[in-house]
Amino acid sequence: MSGEPESQNLASGRERDPAPAIYLSRLVVTHFRSYERAALALDGRPVVLTGPNGAGKTNLLEAISLLSPGRGLRGAPFTELGFRASGETAARHGWAVAATLTRDGDETVIGTGQEPSVGDVPRSRMVRIDGETQSSAGVLGDYLRVLWLTPAQDRLFMDGATGRRRFLDRLVMGFDPSHGTRANAFEKALRERNRLLSEDVRDAMWYAAIEEQMAEYGVAMAAARVETIARLKGAIEATAESAFPKAVLALEGELESAVANGTAATDAEDRYRALLEEMRPRDRGAGRTLDGPHRSDLLVRHAPKDMEAKACSTGEQKALLLGLMLANTRLLAHATGTSPLLLLDEVAAHLDSDRRAALFDELCEMGIQAWMTGTDASLFSSLGARAQGFVVRENRAEMTPL
Q1: Which residue in 321, 377, 320 sits closest to 349, CA to CA?
Q2: 275 is a domain residue
Q3: Distance CA 135, CA 124 (A)
């Protein structure tokens, strides 16, 4: 796969839109998913990937999403990301994703990957910045923010709270990359407490040590969520009316409510720790912990209709979700001083022509490198020279004018 931002992709006599503050000028994937090796050369305009289902469009978005902390837009284990040759039943190959990040004319090469397994033992994920190995993936958040919407999130308002918590925590990580580290630490302590409960362990000191960690990390998670929602509310209120309806946001959770009501962090930790201790018999009977930030929920309403998001039509839910993501993207760019990358998988197919045009106009106005995929190239034709297009076939891509 190859492609250079050629001048023939520009409409006759039209100048290219100014490059955003931050964008990928080169992307290389090696032994990743369906790609043995692929490379793209890019400029700062939005990127459109079109082609048939199964061609490898979403795999490229997933590769980009791994250039930020976490497990990417699919949330897949790293051992599943290696290239599989025909007939292979297990992905034992290593894989790598690297990109040249251009920011105000300066270039930084960032990369992540996993070396081949040794026997049945997988290697750890690696992260490199300008060739230097880093201690953790968290450092990627210092260089690049990546946001995404996928078809799986179209049911965000209909399905259970788990997906909405993950969506919210991903938004939080855009402002505070260390939120992911705290969330992982809380989940680790939660799993250990649940193990003790399921095995009917009665050692109070063991529980106390774990619950101390859960209280510290849990309250920090709740505080970060509350702060992010407060920021988003302000950004939404300041947004002009558009084709994408405004959302009314709220958090449902005891810790989040305590923090939002002004409870000091130390007091909130003490209360949560006491609650965990008091509820050990109940939780032992359930075999799991029933209180904490792992049970919280993000509540969303359609502001113009004053209606719960889950009661809206499919099209309204999609527009509501896009409006929320656009507001967050603008807020993040303002708060951090750099533009995030926005990955929109199969976004155009579920929008009418007016909302497609409105979306493209907003993305170009924000000056971000948004990546969009679709099977029908005609849905993106109104972008014209404002975007760079690639046709993807059988895990290869060629640049083509939109």
Answers
A1: 377
A2: yes
A3: 11
DSSP H or E segment with residue 252: strand 247-252
Model confidence at 6, pLDDT cuts 50, 70, 90, reads: very low
Is pLDDT above 90 for 222?
Answer: yes
Kind of pairing, strands 106-114 and 125-129? antiparallel
Assign 299 to helix, strand or coil: strand
Question: Count of domains in the chain?
Answer: 1
Instruction: Give the helix/strand (H/E) hosting 359.
Output: helix 353-366
DSSP string, 118-139: BTTBPPPEEEEETTEEPS-GGG
Structure tokens at 291: 């209180």
Burial of 382 (0-12, 13-18, 19+ CB in 10 A): middle
Considering only residues 56 and 397, tell me which one the structure prediction assigns the higher pLDDT. Answer: 56
Q: Domain of 200?
A: 159-313
- State the average pLDDT over residues 91-95: 73
For residues 310-319, give the mean pLDDT: 93
Closest C-alpha to 352, from 308, 318, 304 = 318
CA 385 to chain centre: 27
Which pLDDT score is estimated for 138? 86
Q: CATH number of the domain that 247 lies in?
A: 1.20.1050.90
Overall residue count recorded for the chain in this entry: 402
State the angle between helix axes of 204-238 and 161-175 in degrees (0 to 180), rounded to the nearest 10. 70
φ, ψ of residue 22 in degrees (nearest 5): -145, 135
- The dihedral built from the CA positions of residue 149, 150, 151 and 153, taken in this order, carries a sign that is negative
